[in-house]
Request: fold
Amino acid sequence: MLAIVLVIVIMAIIKTFLAAVYSNIILSHHVIASNVPFYEELGTFAVQAIFTSGFFIVVSALLKFAIDWVGNEKIQKNLVSEKREMELQFLKSQLNPHFLFNSLNNIYSLAYQKSDKTADAILKLSEIMRYMIYESNDSWVALSKEIDYVQSFIELQKLRFKDGAAVEMTLQGEIDDQHIVPLILISFVENAFKHGIANDPQNPIKINIIANQKILHFSITNKKNTYNKDEMGGVGLNNVERRLQLLYPDRYKLNIVNSATHYTSELMLDI
Reply:
């Protein structure tokens, strides 16, 4: 502010000095009726010079500030967008190796046991990885494809157990006409298999998916494995919750119920 005032004063002084030196040119005005020159007082000219200089300098400064503000806002938005995209890519890079590591461990167990299911497990993993590498790179995927991916994961997990896994999955609503951010649901399913009891027919893993034109309701419940000392949730659910915050701001509700015997995750998305 002080710099602007100083510039105005300097400009007014320069104008007044020039007016004093070239008074016949700058201070003289011709009266139209008599064509007689009229000389303006130097003091009056100085005051006018202050106001005119101040007006143009202030307007110019405000215009410059406005242009800089708009430019800075654009830069800040780009930085926020780039930071958000980098964080999403980092979260996704965590998710894929996390899933792959667990799946390879399962297949290793089958191979170590010389199980006939090993080849089927490798084929199923190949189908899953194809989805993760190629189709999940899009910002949105069909909900039906995401559910197919979840079902393939469940089939892969079933190969771990001699009598298969106990899973009840129900689908309701407009599954084929909706879209979702890829790899959102899988962490909840993976968490249920990792920390829950998956081969008890009396306490199956229950998955329920209901979709309409506005809301996706997803819930999964599993009986807790008391022999598993790992903390429920872990990297997978922390990862997916952060992705929800970035991709569905104010458009999701996540409710986790951790009782003595069961663990339930319930997710509602505006789609």
Notes: The chain has a mean pLDDT of 76. Strands lie at 28-30, 37-39, 141-142, 167-173, 179-180, 205-211, 215-223, 252-258, 262-270. The two ends are 50 Å apart (CA to CA).
